[in-house]
Amino acid sequence: MPFSKTGIFWGKYSTPFAHNTADFSEKKGKYGETFPFAGGSGTEAELYLVATAEQLNNIRNYLDKHFKQTADIDLKDYSPTEGWEPIGLSKEPFIGSFDGNGFRIISLTISRSSDKTFLFGIGTPVVGLFGYNDGTLKNIALERMDIKGKDAIGSLAGINSGRITNSYATGKIVGEKWIGGLVGANFEGDIIKSYVIGEVEGELGIGGLVGAIWGGSITRSYVTGSVKGKEVVGGLVGVNSDDGSIENSYARAKVEGTKCVGGLVGMNDYDAIIKYSYSAGTVKGKNETGGLVGMNEGAVIAGYYDTETTGQTDTGKGIPAATAEMKLQTLYNGWDFINIWAIDDSKNDGYPYLKMSGH
Q1: What integer is the mean pLDDT of 254-278?
Q2: 3-state helix, strand and coil shares in percent for the chain, rounded to the nearest 5
Q3: Does the pLDDT value for residue 11 go beyond 80?
Q4: What is 151-184 written as a DSSP string?
Q5: d(Cα 35, Cα 105) in Å, to the nearest integer?
Q6: CATH number of the domain that 107 lies in?
Q7: Among 106-115, 174-183, 248-257, which stretch is predicted with the lowest mean pLDDT?
Q8: For the segment 176-218, what is each residue's pLDDT rounded down to a tens digit?
Q9: Residue 123 pLDDT
Q10: Would you say residue 344 lies in a domain?
Q11: Tens of pLDDT along 288-310?
């Protein structure tokens, strides 16, 4: 497992396994045969079809299969006590694929601060639609989420070691450590073309999209809303470490903390990199605070921040620019405004936006 060389947090952790005790609901045919999904066989060629909350829940019993959502699914009244039970554990992660197919999962509600489904040997609950993802998640839309937990919390995945593409979440997440709007902790996984619009709150390692990156990458992703914590707080990512890479991404979030607070990243560790990215939200902190990056020991290439909106003027870990300059394409040296970025006075308040989203 990764470390932070600063010694502020992180360390080695074991990964004991606790069995899932969820009650699976399956359909039965005329002769008693079982139909756990709306159709398909779970192969990559013939995906299982998921149309109801019960069928979504049943994925946990088929962790190596392939799925496609075929209708909006409302989880408002599903498991009203602790809410949704995350799919996949550290020793039995989700290793298949799930395609949201443009349909929504509405009102994902979780309240599991005392959950016994631990990832680490120190009592850390893993919270998200998926607890531990080592597979492929794509085209997933999570709307009006309301999630509360302790550590390693994200709306889509508590822990991601797989691949997440073209997905988004809206709503609120509250926890303690490694809290992200989409993913709590990213262990050498990849997150592409995804975004969060919402509120994220915790104490340590808090990010609008991802709480902590320990290897892997984030590309063409963004956050708007608010991110609040104590230490290591960033608009997009709390801590970026272990060769983690953030590229062609931005945050326009209100960011607040006390130590290691940045408009995009709270702490960029010595072996991590940020490039072609910007921040343009308010940033409030006391120690190691920056418009783009709070504490930087890694590389920042062609990264910019708005001095007027952030209220920061630091240099050496992001290029400061006034609001009017931030809205000029000529400012962004080396950025790809043909395939990745665009700029238009009528979109994203005039700031650069990612072509995949229009935002």
Answers
A1: 98
A2: 5, 45, 50
A3: no
A4: EEE-SSEEEE-SEEES-EEEEEEE-SEEEESSEE
A5: 22
A6: 2.160.20.110
A7: 106-115
A8: 999 999 999 999 999 999 999 999 999 999 999 999 999 999 9
A9: 37
A10: no
A11: 999 999 999 999 999 999 999 99
Q: Contact 294/322 with Cβ under 8 angstroms?
A: no
Domain around 258: 36-334
What kind and span of H or E run contains 306?
strand 304-306
pLDDT at 113: 67
Query: Distance (Å, rounded) from C-alpha 323 to C-alpha 308?
Result: 6
CA 141 to chain centre: 13
- DSSP H helical ranges for 39-91: 53-57
SS3 assignment, position 300:
strand
179/192 Cα distance (integer angstroms): 18
Residue 186 exposure: Cα atoms within 13 Å on the Cβ side = 36
Scored b (16 or more CB within 10 A) or e, 330-349 reads ebbeebeeeebbebeeeebe
pLDDT given for residue 155 in this prediction? 95
CA distance readout (Å), 271 to 156, 230, 238, 318: 27, 23, 15, 17
Cα–Cα distance between 79 and 303 in angstroms, integer?
44
201 lies in some domain: yes
Average pLDDT for residues 154-167, to the nearest whole number? 96
Mean pLDDT lowest among 31-35, 55-59, 196-200? 31-35
Q: Is residue 101 part of a domain?
A: yes
Q: Is the dihedral of CA 16, 22, 27, 31 positive or negative?
A: positive
User: How many domains does the chain divide into?
Assistant: 1
The pair of three-digit structure tokens given for residue 350, joined into one six-digit string = 């005039």
Q: With left for phi above 0 and alpha for psi between -120 and 50, is residue 159 left, alpha or beta? A: beta
Task: Specify the pLDDT at position 80.
Answer: 64
With tokens 């920042």, the residue in question is: 300
Q: Is 116 part of any domain?
A: yes
Find all residues with CB under 8 Å of 230, minimum gap 6, and list them. 203, 204, 257, 258, 259
Question: So what's the pLDDT on residue 115?
Answer: 47
Residue 35 has a CB neighbour count (10 Å cut-off) of 11
